[in-house]
Write a structure and sequence with these properties.
Layout (H helix, E strand, L loop, with lengths): L29 E4 L1 E2 L18 E2 L2 H18 L8 H11 L4 E5 L8 H14 L5 E6 L1 H6 L2 H10 L1 E9 L3 H6 L6 H13 L3 E6 L5 H19 L3 E4 L9 H7 L8 H14 L6 E3 L12 E2 L4 H13 L2 H12 L12 H17 L2 H12 L3
Parallel strand pairs: 1-4, 4-5, 5-6, 6-7, 7-8, 8-9
Antiparallel strand pairs: 2-3, 9-10
Helix pairs in contact: 1-2, 1-3, 3-5, 7-8, 8-10, 10-11, 12-13
Length: about 375
């Protein structure tokens, strides 16, 4: 979800553009920028493209960069130690196998189907090691594409589409200015699946705040039940100061949930998922529990059991785990068994009790904000 901003407009034999973000699962992918920034750029929780204008990149320019990358691949086979960040990024990609490409930025599907299919096919021709091509997209854009257009992209070589669903609850979608309806999310998701393209939907626990937590959980699960995506990824909300949602918090129009309230929301979400075969992934540091992973429906009860295990712990154990997780020390509930680390965190917690326990929640929030 997060990546370093790295855009170069200077042209030389080892230079090409890269956008600001990619999914964590695309860490080993070569990044090829098809569009610049986000055509919607109004979501209340997002700050990634604030102040940036959207634009389509010329197909000829993209193809020239792909040719350039192909030349770099050949050089990498003979050279090492090139002091150029773009050369190094391609070198790292080649050394990791050179099989995966991610098309940037926020919504590559907005490109005309003929142009996007041409770009994808050109990648396949000029980078023959590539086996997988993926991209971000908006559900509304996918819904507007015909099934035939999406099938053409699949046949050209598009392997997977990542969509930020966030929520399936219409009043909340309007509140966060997502610019899409639940019905459009269903239509777009179903079309992608019918075209034979792998679909990854991102859900944002905590996005409903105190007002819409239950509705957010129930309606998001309802939408996913109709889509049955290949993957569901959990991305817990972190309100960014200065974002539109951050302003709503400041104005008292949105009250964020704490870790435990978000876990209760996630439990309701899993309880409501039915009849789907998606793989669930909890692969981001903002998620309190990484263990909420598995393949539905077989792992559903085990996943819910992990949440129940957390709430079966004493209040102190839960707080120590939260502290350890936000400090980057804990990853799984079993990590509590490390007595040395537990005692160290216990001492930190006791320090808060002796000074002012109210400061702890604020400091936990600050620790979470490091991962934006």
């Amino acid at each position: 979800m997060f990546g370093a901003k790295n855009m170069s407009l200077h042209r030389d034999c080892t230079s090409f553009e890269q956008g600001p973000i990619r999914p964590p699962s695309e860490a080993r992918s070569l990044l090829i920028r098809v569009t610049r920034n986000c055509p919607w750029n109004r979501c209340a929780f997002c700050h990634t493209y604030q102040g940036e204008r959207f634009s389509l990149r010329p197909v000829a320019e993209i193809k020239e960069e792909i040719r350039r990358i192909g030349g770099m691949v050949e050089r990498i086979r003979a050279l090492s130690g090139e002091n150029n960040e773009h050369f190094r990024s391609v070198a790292a990609w080649v050394l990791s196998g050179g099989e995966s490409v991610f098309l940037q930025d926020a919504n590559s599907l907005i490109v005309k189907t003929d142009d996007l299919a041409e770009i994808i096919a050109f990648i396949r021709t000029n980078l023959p090691s590539v086996r997988r091509i993926t991209t971000y997209a908006r559900a509304k854009t996918a819904a507007r594409k015909s099934r035939e257009e999406l099938k053409r992209l699949q046949e050209a070589g598009l392997s997977r589409i990542h969509i930020g669903m966030e929520t399936g609850y219409d009043p909340l979608l309007k509140f966060i200015r997502k610019g899409v309806s639940a019905a459009e999310q269903v239509e777009g998701g179903q079309k992608i699946r019918e075209a034979g393209i792998s679909l990854c939907e991102y859900v944002m626990p905590g996005l409903g705040g105190s007002q819409w937590s239950a509705e957010h959980a129930l309606e998001t699960a309802r939408v996913l039940n109709q889509i049955n995506p290949d993957h569901i990824r959990l991305r817990t909300l972190q309100v960014v100061p200065g974002s539109p949602l951050g302003e709503k918090v400041r104005e008292g129009k949105f009250q964020p949930l704490d870790d435990e309230a978000i876990l209760r929301e996630i439990r309701l979400f899993f309880e409501t998922l039915r009849g789907i075969t998606s793989e669930v992934v909890s692969d981001h540091i903002l998620n309190l529990l990484e263990e909420l992973e598995g393949t539905l429906p077989g792992d559903k009860e085990r996943i819910i059991g992990v949440i129940d295990h957390f709430f079966s712990l004493s209040m102190e154990e839960r707080m120590i785990f939260r502290l350890g997780r936000r400090m980057g020390i804990y990853r799984r509930l079993d990590d509590l068994a490390d007595s040395h680390t537990y005692r160290r965190l216990e001492e930190i917690l006791q320090g808060y009790r002796e000074r002012d326990p109210r400061h702890l929640e604020g400091d936990l929030a600050k620790l979470r904000s490091r991962y934006i």
